[in-house]
Design a protein that fits this description.
about 170 residues, 4 strands
Length: about 170
């Protein structure tokens, strides 16, 4: 009776920079997945359904970056990935000893000089997946959404009632 309440669209955010080729490719890929058959070569497929939020030239906030770090941490890994994951190889990047050592420092550096940030950052907030500076990672996020749409994988426990209702 209430199964309609369980379904929610994936919430995808892309932190995009228009001068970054991987960011342009990722945004095009996301927009095409919303408007054209997905996967692209399968004409009988329907477009994917998700809410897309484009945040242009602004890095994620400190809290968002902390959450994203948990999404890109490999399963069964005790240590989160290095903060350098979010930094590009831009010449303006401080040397290894001078790089930020905190999430707040990464955000501050990215706000001062967007060229040192690794664009794009694409996040599936509902599915708990993220990709940093990597178009292949975006394809992986879209493929996971497609598998869920096509019933190849069951919905994660995110949509299952907890506690009193279970």
């Amino acid at each position: 009776m209430f199964s309609g309440f369980k379904r929610s669209l994936p919430q995808i955010s892309i932190f995009h920079h228009p001068s970054s080729p991987p960011s342009i490719q990722a945004l095009t890929l996301l927009r095409n997945a919303l408007s054209s058959p997905y996967p692209p070569g399968k004409q009988s497929a329907s477009p994917l359904e998700f809410d897309l939020e484009v945040i242009e030239t602004k890095p994620p906030t400190t809290d968002q970056l902390r959450t994203i770090l948990t999404y890109i941490t490999p399963p069964k890994s005790a240590a989160p990935p290095a903060l350098s994951t979010f930094l590009s190889a831009h010449p303006a990047l401080p040397g290894p000893g001078e790089q930020p050592q905190s999430v707040k420092g990464i955000v501050s550096l990215a706000e001062q000089n967007p060229n040192v940030f690794k664009w794009p950052v694409v996040v599936d907030w509902i599915g708990g997946r993220a990709s940093v500076g990597d178009v292949e990672g975006v394809k992986g996020i879209l493929e996971a959404i497609r598998q869920q749409r096509d019933g190849e994988v069951k919905r994660d426990e995110v949509d299952q009632p907890k506690g009193w209702f279970s």
